């Protein structure tokens, strides 16, 4: 699994997330390829450099994409490259795979009723730089 930056990956991610036809607007994207095919992508969007916060959205067609090297490429960009102090992700309350992933990274979770509509809550995942650097996935440079 090889990570690479390519803004065209943002459209790939949007195409793989239900109800994401609007896309992400101004963003940057990191793709993950395996055997020459994109198998995952992470989009960095809604960056607020003043508060040091950025939102991440992702999609994958291969569960093996999340290696320690890929995770470090993602969060090195967020915390070292952009100098953010907080990464945020939003997901449907039923998406237990994503929720477990963020918990394993050390994120805090907030479940907000009706944020996805009248009948659906949204899970907001927040990961601080300090929590990431205490994570078992973090590789010190």
Describe the structure.
- The chain has 141 residues and is an alpha+beta fold.
- The protein has a seven-stranded mixed sheet with strand order 1-2-3-4-5-7-6, sandwiched between helices.
- The chain has one domain: Aminopeptidase, CATH 3.40.630.
- The chain has four helices and seven strands.
- The chain has helices at residues 9-16, 68-81, 96-105, 129-134; strands at residues 2-5, 27-34, 37-48, 53-60, 86-92, 108-112, 122-128.
- Helix content is 27%, strand content 36%.
Q: Helix/strand-derived class? A: alpha+beta
CATH architecture: 3-Layer(aba) Sandwich
Shape: globular
Q: State which percent range the strand residues make up.
A: 35-45%
Low-confidence stretches at least 5 residues in length (pLDDT < 50)? none
Number of discrete helical segments? 4
Radius of gyration over all CA atoms, rounded:
14 Å
Query: What is the CATH C level class, in words?
Result: Alpha Beta
Task: State the helical fraction.
Answer: 25-40%
Largest sheet: 7 strands, mixed
């Amino acid at each position: 699994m090889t990570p690479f930056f390519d803004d065209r990956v943002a459209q790939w991610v949007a195409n793989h997330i239900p109800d994401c036809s609007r896309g992400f607007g101004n963003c940057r994207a990191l793709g993950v390829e395996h055997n020459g095919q994109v198998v995952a992508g992470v989009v960095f969007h809604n960056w607020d450099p003043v508060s040091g916060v950025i939102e991440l959205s992702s999609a994958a067609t291969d569960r093996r994409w999340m290696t320690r090297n890929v995770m470090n490429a993602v969060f090195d960009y967020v915390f070292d490259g952009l100098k953010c102090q907080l990464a945020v992700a939003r997901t449907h309350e039923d998406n237990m795979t994503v929720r477990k992933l963020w918990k394993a990274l050390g994120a805090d979770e907030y479940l907000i009723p009706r944020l996805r509509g009248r009948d659906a809550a949204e899970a907001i995942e927040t990961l601080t730089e300090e929590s990431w650097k205490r994570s078992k996935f973090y590789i010190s440079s």
